[in-house]
Amino acid sequence: MSDAPFPDAPRVDAHDKVRGAILFGADQRRPDMLHAALAVATIVKGRITSLDTRGASAVPGVRLILTHENLGHVKSAGFVMAGGHAFQSLQPMLSPAIAYRGQPIALVVADRLEMAIEAAELIRATYAPEPASVTLDAPGAETVDQSDASAKKLRSEIIAGNADKAFEEAPVKIDARFVTAPQHHNPIELLATLAEWKHGKLTVHESTQNAEGVRHGLAAALGLTPECVEVISPFVGGGFGQKYSMQMQTVLTAVAAQRLGRPVKLVVPRAQIFHDSSFRPAIRQRVRLGADRSGHMVAAIHEVDAQTSRHDLFPAQYAAASSRLYGIKNFRGRERFVGNDVQTPGYMRAPFEHAACFALECCVDELAYRLGRDPVALRLANDTATDAISKLPLSSRHVGECLRRGAERFGWNKRIMTPQSMRAPDGSCIGWGVAIGAYPCCIAPTVTWLRVTVEGGVFISIGTHEMGQGIRTALAAAVGRKLGVPVTNVVAVIGDTRGSPQHLTAGSWGTASAIPNANEAAEAMLKAMAKLNPGGATGRTPAEILKAAGRTSLEVEIKTKAPGQSDEVYRRIAAGQLSFAGPVYPEFVTFSYSAHFVEVRVEPTTHQVRIPRVVSVVDCGRVISPRTAASQVRGGVVWGIGAALHEASEVDPRYGGFLNTDLAEYLVPVNADIGCIEVEFIDKPDFKFNSAGVKGLGEVSMVGVAPAIANAVYHATGRRVRNLPIRIEHLL
Q1: 259 by DSSP, 3-state: which?
Q2: 1 has pLDDT over 50
Q3: Catalytic pick from 189, 230, 647, 699?
């Protein structure tokens, strides 16, 4: 692959997006389509003792009411992190048991959506409630150390050296506790399923990050062979982890469509999504950081309690993030599950790294002040070229350059270190803060079918999904460059189980997996075309070569996998199973890095926090699509601002469930909250990691934003805030 930077080209799908030509899962319609709505539980925990559906049945247009009494032979598809396919092992309506408030208890199908909603609201249930626990500290919460749990095989303990001894002996110590509230993803496109059966075959249109997993999950739940199921998801209207596995409504909608012999669509209202999809759990952390008097960090102990459900253990990986930010030789991580009566939490952008780096980077800032060191200089002094846990070399690490470039662009040298020392003309307290972020780089096995046609078309079917990050644009740029064709000629077929196997796209491994694979497919196509061009005529396009050879098309297939993976991974992705590698490879470790510089303004009487500007510099390897990459970083920064200042899913400790289940009361940043966000890339390829030199970007762009804001708030006010979100009352 050429080492030359890629040009700043527009999205290949931009025109179709802005004119509404793209159909998302929730947009799908059929002439004879029926509509579905859910009725949900109004207790935290217990059992249904009776269910009255007579009022619902009397609503005109109602065609079917499914409950646990008539759902039929349906099984759980299993928890995705325990070898299954669904976001949790609990499939609603298999029994009268209620595990959490908001759990579906009935599905109503009617001719019109309004009829289905009215009927669902008329379903009456009586319950036998049981004692419940919905917060980390509530009576009845079950605490399990991850090292003793069944999920240990998924997440090993992070230990290096003797952290307790080194911390005890360290002359400078920081000991701090942090709490982060539960949060929900809230993408614009709601969870939705359109299911239709034809000739014994089920076709599902659903926005998902894991089409193959949904396909095999449906087959497992309904007793079908995978060949009888198709899942089509060409575009996802936002996912961020929420759509990484099969949702609770998918099976129910498929059953309803089969019973009625007509297509059925269910769009889950946002309020119900808060209770019936995964979420970022409540997290409690304690970080102990030890250093010598020169500022060299010698020990870190990171202890985490993270919420999970009673029925699943959602694996935690917080220490894996905090242990890799610096070259701290003595490190000990301890992670515990706290079982509550909630749905199973899951992956939400920077799932562990956001909270883990918030805790550690706030402590690093506190250490800088304890020592009287500049926070940027202290971080540079603790840079490393070796992974502190595995002792393997890092394939690339340019976080120092991120810090230096960011500091220069931000004007960090004008910062006065003393808290409350900088003021704006209107009297607001000015604070400047910095933090770094890291995210492990992974590669998923990928299969590509690449076809060129005599008409000049280039069609690539590849195992990845388009969640708005611009993967189609990156694929077109890479393949177009290799084959010497315009990017507009390249058509990507993705998120579609009728094509190549579709591995889950998440964890910033989409581009790092798809682009090297696509490059290899393009190289294979060039070799195949060379055989059709025995004279070696130069300057011919693929279409011209095919025409001269009397061929209408030419197709190649390429499979790629991560270092250290066996060929067994191809069987796993064909079966809809997870199979990604990282962050530890046989010979090196790979991470993406970011450095965020934030300015806050704190109004002195109301203590409202504003953020007029952010400078973010990212080391993500080669940047394939500069325009969409910069958009990814800006989106990550906006989310980091929301996570730091706005977002919290408020819990009712008495009755369970979440209270602020809409975008009016679940606060997210709006235009008025966002100032100038400047983005820069190191753009140095990492060819050790893969042949394209591409690392991950989507997740790392958010990591470090929250601690940079918290550190800026300290600089402005002199107050250390260790809870997220930062509220006005924390500053009073």
Answers
A1: helix
A2: no
A3: 699
